[in-house]
Amino acid sequence: FWSALAAGVTLATITGLAYAELATKFPQAAGAALYVNKAFRNPVLTFLITICSLSAVFAASGSLATGFARYFGELFDLVPALLVTLAFIVVLTIVNFVGITESVVVNMVMTFVEVFGLIVVMGIGITVVVQGDADFGVLTEFTAEGSPVVAVIAGVALAFFAMTGFENAANVAEETINPSRTFPRALIGGMIAAGVIYVLVAMSAALVVPVGTLAEADAALLEVVRADVLPGSVEVMLKIFAVIAMIAITNTTLVSVVTQSRILYGMAKEDVVPRPFAKIHPSRRSPYVALVFSALVVAALLVIGELLSNVDADLDIVGRLATVTVVFLLFIYALVIISCLKLRGEGETGDSYRANTVLLYLGVIGNTVLLGYVVYDDPRSLYWVVGLLAVGVALYLAQRLTAGTRGTGAPTGGGA
């Protein structure tokens, strides 16, 4: 359980080293698409990376919205989950429409609440240890059938989902003072700090609740609260923690909604998708067309997921969309690390940050192996992957058809 999360954190941090090196060489707001374009000079590959970035954020938003509905159900179990997820996406779209400044303020407040919730879980674990009720043997016990290595790899795939999002930091490198020095420290330091917290939370949860119970729960961290370690009413604490969990999910989803609309906006400005996506509201200064379209795509994913869940009761839509997100990101991460190695010597100055070469090669291998395992373990996720890629291709074809003679050739990418 915790070891899989630790492995996922390690792989994500190694990938972060490549982003740190590339962001200090090319401090521009384009991220993975820029790095791949500079390394390979292949516009089709650049376009693919951009669409994968957009698709990953769509899938992540759907997964998070469904997770939000599960915690919401702990408070109000009479409201249909699909209605909750759709309303959740609509509300966040409106928040983003109001403006990016307001979104950032809301994000900061929710971050503090999110950290508080994680501290509470660690506090429960510490209490169990102090009371002498902790069985540390569970931290080294493998209950899964088959090879422990395969069991860890299986856990890493979804644990990796918890660390995604760090790649978006590369988009603000150009706004950083002395990026060659400060950006790598901030990015890697932040990832290590977040990773340590996540691992401690996972260990605390495992000490309080059987791992099997956590694995089967729809809202795993609520099982820690149900252990009745904290003083006061369990029912009251469950409701409080459900609210904290919903705030934490809202925080992450808010960033996703911002990201997906801005990627579409950037692609429209580069004439990769239809120009209306670049429209800005005159008073709110928000890309409202991109926001509405993004909300519709995520809503479509949620509706399709609900329909499929009615047919297949064993389908876990949260896990499926998380897997789809990981498939896209592992492909992107592997190409970014390869781009980092390929661009060695280009754009470097005396104070340029340089990641450890051996670690980068390990990162390529790790991301590739994990990508292969994820696809092997859940081949049906590829249907979702192809569907989301088709949306991107359809937008590109729509742009080519409406552009007439304006612009020819393959796209060079947008924001990613």
From TrEMBL:
The chain crosses the membrane at residues 44-66, 78-98, 104-130, 186-209, 240-265, 286-305, 317-338, 358-376, 382-398. InterPro entries: AA/rel_permease1 (IPR002293), APC_superfamily (IPR050367). It is found in: Cell membrane. The keyword Transmembrane applies. It is a multi-pass membrane protein. Gene3D superfamilies: Amino acid/polyamine transporter I. GO terms for molecular function: transmembrane transporter activity. It comes from uncultured Nocardioidaceae bacterium. Keywords: Cell membrane, Membrane, Transmembrane, Transmembrane helix. PANTHER family: AMINO ACID TRANSPORTER-RELATED (PTHR42770), INNER MEMBRANE TRANSPORT PROTEIN YBAT (PTHR42770:SF11). GO terms for cellular component: plasma membrane. This is Uncharacterized amino acid permease, GabP family.
